[in-house]
Every structure is written in structure tokens, then in C-alpha cells.
Amino acid sequence: MGNILEKLTILSDAAKYDASCSSSGSKRANHNKGLGDATGMGICHSYTEDGRCVSLLKILLTNHCIYDCAYCVSRRSNDVKRAGFTVEEVVDLTINFYRRNYIEGLFLSSGIFKSADNTMERLVRVAKTLRTTHNFNGYIHLKAIPGASPELLHEAGLYADRLSVNIEIPSEMNLKKVAPEKNYTDIITPMNYLTEEKFRYTDDKKHFKKTPLFLPAGQSTQLIVGATSENDHQILQLADNLYNTQKLKRVYYSGYVPIKTDNRVPLLSAPPLIRENRIYQADWLLRFYKFGVGDIVNDQYPNLDLEVDPKVSYALRNPHLFPVDINHADYEMILRIPGVGVKSAQKIVSSRIHQRLHMDHLQQMGVALKRARYFIQCPGAPVQRKDLQMHDLRQLLIADKTVQKTQMSLFG
Fold first, then answer.
1. 135, 288, 314, 376 - which has most CB atoms within 10 Å?
2. 3-state secondary structure 219-278
3. Which cofactor does it need (predicted)?
4. What is d(CA 124, CA 61) in angstroms, rounded to the nearest whole number?
């Protein structure tokens, strides 16, 4: 047991750098009196202080690795303690932790043992043993190893709820600099294969009810922010392309965690967490707010504003579009008002059919008026000062946020 605990300590710590561990979107019902399920609300989450998910049993199969990627704590040249689980050890941990209600699923990644196929085969055996021997219906997220054969990827798709092939570095040119043994072909090829197989199974399901599940929670990937020179425009363009062509469920962004001095990566004192957060906000605008990448960042503004969120930044750069008339503007334009969420925008559009909306209505609908009041027009809205330039408004919004933070700390 002592050996297992030591392995668990090493390999769970090494897994914390992998952010792509969301468990949403899978529907795997319990059957044949099996163990657990992954339907609907089947997985709950908790997060560490830096926002990383820890509710799943999140471990590496091993932190031994044949690659020497400059940004990775498990790279072969890094002097860290090494360990590796057997397939049976991971299965036993998962079952025992699940029975004790410690976890509600498994997130299993890995360094590369001998080859991509050798490692992928072990990952698949873990999932297959859990599903077929233990009738485990809980959530399973496996890392798809770049360069793994289609046969192993196919088998993985039948047992896992989600697979993720991590791109890590947002351009192939910089990938070559910091991870010369990797290439985009080995990363994109399995992604393409899984996308095509997912479409094929989905289509078969329409005609044959007994078609098995194949990746019910889809694919995801992770991009590292700040380890190389890509700007936010390049990162968001890549993410948008992945959403549109690969139909990924999520692109995760991980601020580069400086591990040890390596002249291939920048010397940072701390991970760029604010930048990471702004990119997540921008990603949200792409997926749910009908923004295009060019609305958020472009050649003129290649990086996100770190002091205000991307929607406020958009409004400040496009003063000719604001204030927006709440009672007449179309839904897409209402979505672009800072402080107005998707649900609030839907309520505005449905409610204004019956009555003319004013500020009190917006407050009841959950609109964040502290931000929205500068960008809306309706009865009761504060009169906009014509002499207030966007630069001044930006300073006002930043000051509001500072005051709010100061007030909150009094109750902390």
C-alpha cells in the first residue's frame, strides 16, 4: 500500500498541469446493476484555487517520458521522481475510490512509455477493464496519445466518454522549437480520425438502435499560454478553427507554469493566470455570444486587454455601436452589451413584446447594471455624458472594479 500511495502522490501531482478534465456532456446510463453512471448531473466538480478541476481521480499512468518538451514537468531531462502505475493498480484505485464516494469518474493521462502505441494500449486496457470486468458506468476521460494507431483510438472511443489530444503549443513552428520530437501531423491525424468516427457512429445510431456509444462526451484539447510567442489572436483563431472543423467540445487554456530554467521557454516568475482567464472569457464569447474572432482580437489589437474583460474591450473599441436601445435592438446586438448574459438577453427579447422595458426590469432579469449602464439606452437609464470619451470610460470601469474588490475584502 505504501508503494501505491507514493505513486499516487507523484502521479496525481504531475497530472495537475493538464487542465482539460471537464466531465460534462456524457450520457452513459447504469445498466445490468453496474457501478455508477455518467448521465446528466452524474459528475460534480470542485476546483483548486487556480481553477483546476479535482473532482475526478486525476492521475498520470506514468510520468516516465521519452520526449523532452521544454514546457513539461515530465520531460525526460527534468530531474523529478518517476513512477508508473500498472493497469490493474489504476483499475483498483478507481473502483475503490468510487465505492468510497471520493470520486465520480476517472481522468487518465500519461507520459510516453516506449512508444505512442505502447502507452495508448495501456490506457485502453484500463478503460476496457473498468467497463467490461467491473461494469463501471462512471465517467472516463482518457488522453489520446499523438501518433497512436487508429485501431487503438477506435477501441478507446468505445470505452471512454471523452478523449483529448493535446495540441499544447498553438503553432507548429514554435512546437518544433520547444518539443522537437513532436509534430502537428501526429496530433491532428488522431483528432481527424476521432471526429470522423464520431460522425459515423452518430449517423449509424439514427438507423440502428443498438449502435454502441462512441465518445459520447466528444473531444477536447489543451493549449498552453505564454510558453511561446503566439499572441491571443493566433490562439483564438486556432481555437475557433478547432470548434468549427473538429467540432471539439472544449478547448482548454493553461497558463504556462514555469518549471525550471530552460532557454527554450521564457523565464517567468508566475503563470500568466490573468491572460489565461481573459482567453477563457473570449472563448466563451465565441461559443455562446455569437462573436467572431475578429470582433475580439485582430491585427490592430492582437492581444486581449488584461484590465477589462473582452466584451467591455469590444464596446470601448466600437463606440459607434453603443448605447444599445434595449427595446428595439436585435438579439445579437443585445448579447454584445457588457453585463448582459445569454439568459438575460433572451428574457429581454421575450419580455419587450409585452411591455416597454426600463432599468428596473433589467435589474430583475439579472443584468449586471454596474457595467451595462454605460452601454444601454432605455427609460430610466442614466443620461450619457457626451463629453465622456472611451478612454475616460475605461478608467471609470477599472476604478469601479477596484472599489468593488476593496469593499469585498472587508467581509473576507
1. 376
2. EEEEEEECCCCCCHHHHHHHHHHHHHHHCCCEEEEEECCCCCCCCCCCCCCCCCHHHHHH
3. [4Fe-4S] cluster
4. 11
- C-alpha span between 81 and 78 (Å, rounded): 9
Find out whether 378 and 362 touch, Cβ atoms under 8 Å: yes
pTM: 0.87
- Cell readout for 356 is 416597454
- SS3 assignment for the chain: CHHHHHHHHHHHHHHHHCCCCCCCCCCCCCCCCCECCCCCCCCCCCECCCCCECCCEEEECECCCCCCCCCCCCCCCCCCCCCECCHHHHHHHHHHHHHCCCCCEEEEECCCCCCHHHHHHHHHHHHHHHHHHCCECCEEEEECCCCCCHHHHHHHHHHCCEEECCCECCCHHHHHHHCCCCCHHHHHHHHHHHHHHHHHHHHHHHHCCCCCCCCCCCEEEEEEECCCCCCHHHHHHHHHHHHHHHCCCEEEEEECCCCCCCCCCCCCCCCCHHHHHHHHHHHHHHHHCCCCHHHHCCCCCCCCCCCCCHHHHHHHHCHHHCCEECCCCCHHHHHCCCCCCHHHHHHHHHHCCCCCCCHHHHHHCCCCHHHHCCCEECCCCCCCCCCCCHHHHHHHHHHHHHHHHHHHHCCC
Task: Please tell me the predicted confidence (pLDDT) of residue 231.
Answer: 97
Pairing of strands 324-325, 250-255: unpaired
pLDDT of 409: 42
pLDDT at residue number 397: 86
pLDDT value of residue 54: 60
213 C-beta neighbours (distance < 10 Å), count: 17
Sequence letter at residue 156: A
Weakly modelled stretches of the chain, pLDDT under 50:
41-42, 406-412
| Cβ(278)–Cβ(284) below 8 Å | no
**Burial (CB count <10 Å: 0-12, 13-18, 19+), residue 90:** buried
Residues 139/22, Cβ–Cβ less than 8 Å: no
What's phi and psi for 105, nearest 5 deg?
A: 175, 180
